[in-house]
């Protein structure tokens, strides 16, 4: 990550869904309206399930986060991904 990126959103997908890092970065760049973004994925293992948590990063100066979140939710829906999205801002 460059230029002091911060985590702005996390999400999980349905148990049978996934997204590649390249596709996720493209989706996030489009939703945020900037190219200077990055993504991450962490795998959490528990007794009952394994879950992937995706994190979306951008510069701290990214503005209009409510509009970005709306575009992000719409993009996930358009990609037919059942996401549980959490804003960290």
Helical stretch tally: 2
End-to-end separation: 18 Å
Counting DSSP E segments of at least 2 residues, the number of strands comes to 4
Outline the low-pLDDT stretches.
none
Radius of gyration: 13 Å
Helix content estimate:
25-40%
Structural class: alpha+beta
The main sheet comes to: 4 strands, antiparallel
Overall pLDDT score? 93
State the shape: globular
Q: Secondary-structure element order, as H and E?
A: EHEEHE
Proportion of residues in β-strands: 25-35%
- Main sheet: which strands, in order across? 2-3-1-4
Could you characterize what this model shows?
With 89 residues, the chain is α+β, with helices and mostly antiparallel strands. It has helices at residues 21-32, 65-78; strands at 5-12, 38-45, 50-59, 84-87. It is 29% helix and 34% strand. A 4-stranded antiparallel sheet has the order 2-3-1-4. The radius of gyration is 13 Å and the shape is globular. 21% of the residues are buried.
